[in-house]
Design a protein that fits this description.
Blueprint lengths: L1 E3 L5 E3 L5 H61 L1
Antiparallel strand pairs: 1-2
């Protein structure tokens, strides 16, 4: 199949072979899988960071609560 260009030159259209189509399919499928893995890993890291932050806040609140309770007991026993 030939296509006539704008300046009168004929160009041959290139047909993809079955092997080239297979290589293209494999490459694209690998790209899709990699993109999905990257998205999944980013989401996991974000959730892990949020969980660690939440645990740190809970631990900090529990530690502060114990110090306050101990302080109240100590000041109450002095009276």
């Amino acid at each position: 199949m030939t296509i006539k260009g704008t300046n009168g030159v004929r160009f041959q259209s290139t047909r993809q072979t079955a092997e080239t189509k297979a290589e293209t399919t494999i490459r694209i499928s690998k790209e899709i899988v990699q993109t999905e893995a990257d998205i999944r890993n980013a989401k996991t890291e974000k959730l892990k960071a949020a969980r660690l932050e939440m645990l740190a806040r809970e631990t900090g609140a529990a530690t502060a609560g114990r110090k306050t309770a101990n302080h109240k007991k100590a000041s109450g026993s002095k009276d």
